[in-house]
Specification:
By secondary structure, the protein is α+β, with helices and mostly antiparallel strands. Helix content is 20%, strand content 41%. It has 1 helix and 10 strands. It has one helix spanning 4-30, and strands at residues 51-52, 55-56, 60-61, 66-74, 81-88, 91-100, 106-112, 117-125, 128-129, 133-137. Strands 3, 5, 6, 8, 9 and 10 form a 6-stranded mixed beta sheet that branches. Strands 1, 2, 4 and 7 form a 4-stranded antiparallel beta sheet that branches. A hairpin with a 2-residue loop joins strand 5 (81-88) and strand 6 (91-100).
């Protein structure tokens, strides 16, 4: 024998089941993409390409005179190092001048150069390099 409570429970489950089928059917009818033959492809977010800018505070200095190189980075992690490189005999040489990138992506690096003449310089972090800039040492 079925109790009243059990029959009421079965009736409620049946009504809820029918209502969920009706709602699922109307939701599928409302989304035409579910019925098309072309598959939906999820797009991955493409990370911003890393870049570095660099600007010297002066274009000409005396030998061993302190000047600053400042700039901004994008796509590089805050706290990672940027290093100054100098072109010597056709090769890029890392100088002992580096600084950490700030939270906003900026950096400021104090530099002293002793190699007289026009110096081709750039800032690097890993495989990312800034455009070449020049400082003349007299």
């Amino acid at each position: 024998m079925i109790s009243k409570r059990r029959s009421l429970r079965l009736a409620v489950v049946g009504v809820l089941g029918a209502a969920s089928l009706v709602l699922a059917g109307s939701a599928m009818a409302a989304t035409p993409a579910a019925h098309t033959a072309t598959p939906v492809v999820a797009q991955k977010a493409v990370p911003a390409k890393a870049s570095i800018t660099a600007k010297p505070s002066v274009s000409s200095v005396r030998a061993w005179q302190l000047f600053r190189v400042t700039g901004k980075t994008t796509g590089l992690k805050a706290g990672s190092k940027v290093t100054l490189q100098q072109k010597q005999h056709g090769k890029w040489v890392s100088l002992p001048a580096s600084v950490s990138i700030a939270r906003d992506g900026s950096y400021s690096l104090g530099v002293k150069l002793g190699l007289k003449g026009k110096n081709d310089l750039r800032i690097v972090s890993g495989t990312t390099a800034s455009p070449v800039f020049n400082v003349t040492v007299r």
